Amino acid sequence: xxxxxxxxxxxxxxxxxIDVGYxxxxxxxxxxxxxxxxxxxxHKHVTIYNDGTGVIINEFDMVFNRQEKTFLKRGLDISDGKxxxxxxxxxxxxxxxIQDRFSKYGFWYCSDDNIISSVKEKYWxxxxxxxxxxxxxxxxxxxxxxxxxxxxxxxxxxxxxxxxIYVMSIPGMYPIKDGKLDINAINxxxxxxxxxxxxSTSIRINNPIRNFYYTISFESDILLEREPKCILKHIDxxxxxxxxxxxxxxxxxxxxxxxxxxxxKIGSIIKINWQFKED
Length: 279
Hints:
Strand content: 35-45%
Radius of gyration: 18 Å
Number of strands: 16
Number of helices: 4
């Protein structure tokens, strides 16, 4: 209960401020018996602080169509962050106290009725295979982090919504210092060669989602050369690109940009891109 209280407090703070998991059979509908679960609402919120630290909150309502063994695979790559950014182990991240989220790598999660039975670091390659072999190359890359959530299906009631939240804190997630782009800290060669390409956060839609929300927040003293722009494209239709509108809000502490997409197509990639002002 203590960690749940901590996370709820963090969310309250951050709101003033996904690779959207695996399901056993791919399908576009929601109430389909071949689908173990879908997302009624999914909100990914990335907040960036003026030293480059990022805090990511994924919050979603899962609905299970049937009571069955289920898991979610997740991954994150910070190759476009600072040179010295590197993930510790999941065990180490879970030891971090929530109040240290601005200076240490951390990982926290909670779920209604404790339906998450375990979370395990695993460098999977096939998101459709629960028991696929680990990718040693990914495992040895300290800028890549992958893991698996498993669910206690004995606690699951079909057709009921379950709130699931997980939070990560990542020092050096973006190469900025004192609110400006720090060229000497850039790790990504593509960004070094083309600063105007900017930085981004993205998510690939692999499951049915009824309402998807994507938020990027910047601490108010971060300076932008170019404001965020949302890009939506289907993986098999590269020429089919749209730009969902981002709603801008400012509360003296954060600039927040949010888009809302209803029933995004499976296979879609949603990206928010912007450019930091140079130091």
